[in-house]
Amino acid sequence: MRFDNIRLFSTDLDGTLLGDPAAAERFSLAWAALEPRRRPLLVYNTGRTVADTRALVAERTLPEPDYIIGSIGTELHDSLYNCAEEFRRQFNVGWDRARVDEIVGAFSGVKRQPPVYSHAYKSSWFWVRARREEVTQLQSQLAAAGLHAQVIYSCRYFLDVVPARAGKGPALAWLCQRLHIRFANVLVAGDTGNDSGMFQLHGVKGIVVQNALPELMAGLPDAAVFVARTTMADGVLEGLRHFGVLDDGDSRAAPPSPARAAGRI
Q1: Protein fold of 8-88+166-262
Q2: What CATH number is given for 95-163 in this structure?
Q3: Is the pLDDT score of 251 beyond 70?
Q4: pLDDT over 80 at 4, yes or no
């Protein structure tokens, strides 16, 4: 099946594009070889900060993105002009970082992440093997306190609380609205639970790499999601070919066999 109307591609970095240097290089070569008229807008949608992502792009020679959604949907940068202030203004209603910290800190087993991982609109913690009902209870307590916040728990370890309008999915929705791009023209890729918000935007197409965690698989919509047979950037390349962004015969995008890919770390 071919989809010739993909106008924007939003992808996670760690565990999706990154993790296998050779595969990441194959992605970079394939993306650079796309004709400009066929190349969708490229969005890196990541838990990393915008500053860290920009440094990483230069270090790893990744394709230059058109936009970066950073810090789990709480930062935004684009290559034309920085609209970060316009983006952040939406978070002020119903958000109180000090009150969020107070409520989260009262839960047993949570430990603060180093200060560099938190900011005014992001409260980040470690929470080892939290049960689903504990995460639900935390969300309920935040709502009962009148806070417009969402709890994002991933890898059975990382806990982030961000404004309700933040997160990878809502941030991508804000960007698409600003660019007048329908979700039906959007393709996303990811591997963990904090990517699930992107897949849940109604009408998007999705790529799930082979190494994706069960926490992502459990929340996926049934339609228009391609599950790759290979890991990380090779899985992304599979998905890009499936959705017609890359040609099937493009040798620069050809990954190794699934059996070989499954043996990589």
Answers
A1: Rossmann fold (3.40.50)
A2: 3.90.1070.10
A3: no
A4: no
Q: What single string gives the DSSP state of each residue in 131-168?
A: -HHHHHHHHHHHHHTT--EEEEEETTTEEEEEETT-SH
pTM above 0.70, yes or no: yes
The residue extents of the domains of the chain are 8-88+166-262, 95-163
Q: Is there a shared CATH topology between the 8-88+166-262 domain and the 95-163 domain? A: no
Closest Cα partner for 166 from 175, 158, 179? 175
pLDDT at 75 over 80: yes
Going from the C-alpha of 136 to that of each of 84, 130, 153, the distances in angstroms are 30, 10, 10
pLDDT over 70 at 67, yes or no:
yes
Cβ partners under 8 Å of residue 78, min gap 6 = 66, 67, 68
